[in-house]
Design a protein that fits this description.
By secondary structure, this protein is of the alpha+beta class. It has helices spanning 52-66, 84-89, 113-121, 178-182, 184-194, 221-226, 243-264, and strands at 4-18, 49-50, 104-106, 109-111, 129-133, 149-153, 159-171, 209-220, 231-232. It has one domain (4-31, 39-126, 156-261). The strands form two sheets. Strands 1, 2, 3, 4, 7, 8 and 9 form a seven-stranded antiparallel sheet that branches. A two-stranded antiparallel sheet has the order 5-6. Helix 1 (52-66) crosses helix 5 (184-194). The protein is globular, with a radius of gyration of 22 Å. It starts with a strand and ends in a 6-residue tail after the last helix. It binds zinc ion. The site of zinc ion has 6 residues, from helix 2.
């Protein structure tokens, strides 16, 4: 057995709903001279989206603070076997880790079909709104002169499809399957995000999001190698589990693997 053996992928999908307008900054493109100073990031086709890197970075940061892994303003780069943060989210590319590849991949999240149609029906060609912000003088409470700045945002109520892939490996020196024990941390980070914000201007109301329609499936190694079916987690995926629920959830994750193992060794039943 190699140092790390691939067991399978847990795939979590669902929707991200913007409870308030969202601003994830994009670059002001050369062809858009005279356009917005503070545009949102968009695809080549002009659709706003949530970059996987933005979502992943925010989840990492919130989890890191909650687990007390931030030292000064530095993020964790230890690369140790038992470090949830490094193992789930990765370390810098040049760092040699003891646990192999980064476990979590977060895809870019694009508008749901419904949201796209709704925004189109409103006659919006940009799929966004413009908020004009003013800088307030804290002493007088009045707007500072010349402080008006237009900021582009994705309107409240907009929904995006998201998808994350979490790879599970068995590590030679680990008796337990620690990757499965770590998976609920991703749900913790999502709960933390719901009470925080995504993108810019969060302390001023933007970027409150909610995760909806969560669906979790497991694709074991043989899904890819032998066309075996994926297995779906049948209970609702709960972002706020107490310790009993967490234990039950981890057990359910283990059962995905055990079923697979049974199929592999039909002769091993005594
Ligand atoms: Zn670490």
């Amino acid at each position: 057995m190699s140092e790390y053996a691939f067991i399978g992928n847990l795939i979590l999908t669902g929707e991200i709903r913007c409870k308030t307008a969202l601003h994830i900054g994009g670059s002001k493109d050369a062809y858009e001279i005279g356009g917005m100073d503070n545009p949102v990031i968009k695809t080549m086709k002009g659709m706003p989206y949530i970059p996987g890197s933005s979502l992943k970075g925010k989840l990492r940061s919130l989890l890191e603070w909650s687990l007390g892994k931030v030292t000064g303003s530095e993020t964790c780069k230890c690369g140790e076997l038992g470090c949830e943060i490094c193992r789930i989210f990765g370390t810098s590319a040049d760092k040699k880790t003891k646990f192999g590849p980064t476990r979590l991949v977060v895809r870019d999240a694009f508008l749901t079909k419904d949201s796209r149609e709704e925004l189109e029906a409103l006659g919006s060609t940009t799929f966004t709104e413009v908020k004009t912000e003013t800088a307030i003088d804290r002493l007088t409470g009045k707007a500072k002169d010349g402080s008006l700045r237009p900021i582009e945002r994705v309107p409240e109520g907009t929904e995006f499809n998201f998808s994350m892939v979490y790879s599970v490996y068995k590590i030679k020196d680990e008796t337990e399957l620690r990757d499965l024990e770590f998976f609920p941390h991703i749900l913790d980070a999502m709960a933390l995000l719901e009470d925080s914000y995504l993108g810019g201007m969060g302390s001023r109301g933007s970027g409150q999001v909610e995760f909806e329609k969560l669906r979790l499936v497991f694709r074991g190694k043989d899904y890819y190698l032998k066309g075996e079916e994926e297995k779906q987690h049948t209970d609702q995926v709960n972002l706020r589990m107490n310790s009993g629920e967490r234990e039950k959830f981890i057990k359910a994750l283990h059962s995905f693997l055990n079923e697979g193992a049974k199929d592999e060794n039909p002769g091993s039943q005594a």
